[in-house]
Write a structure and sequence with these properties.
By secondary structure, this protein is of the alpha+beta class. The protein contains five helices and seven strands. The longest helix is centred in the last third of the chain and has 26 residues. The two termini are 23 Å apart.
Length: 205
Amino acid sequence: MSGDLEPKIRAWLAGEGLEIRERPDQRADFHLMVRYPPTPHGHVFNIVSPKQRDLVVISTVTQVDAGQQEEMAKRGGENPKEWESWLHDSRLHLTRSGVDWVLHVRNSNNNPPGPLQAFNLSQPIWDDGLSQNELMQALRHLWLTKLAVIHEIKYDFGPGVGRPGPVDDWQHQAGSEPPQVQRDNIVSTDDAGSFGSGFDPSEWQ
């Protein structure tokens, strides 16, 4: 099935003017990277067909700016309840958005937890429901959900310093390749809204 899907998906993406790159991935039948929206300020999205799964996963990872992380840590120290409420509201927003999500929060089990370091958003499309409309609508929905979180962070914690902050989870994954991120992109994993037992969308960053 994947042999038929990949050229079809490539044609759909190319028809929308999206830049397509291939990423080697032994866990997938194919792993494409696209920039969406198709502008100089578009963000990187992964389109993956996991082996032995009848679905395609679209995902995007966002890394929080170092300055914004500092402001979050400051907020947590000065007003722990307010910071925990912000994280809680963010989880509710993402859950209501209908996408699968993973938040990477430093020292997430502490009271209060540390700053939000990055977030991963993903959405599956099963093969029997895959169409150009479903694929492009999923990309658009993930982009708008991501944009809402980015705007919320900038509104509450400022524009940052133009430098991505650390992500403890990625540093702890010894020997693993860091995900493809960019400055505007947002994650120690403390929660996940996933769509399959034993399948972690954060692995496909």
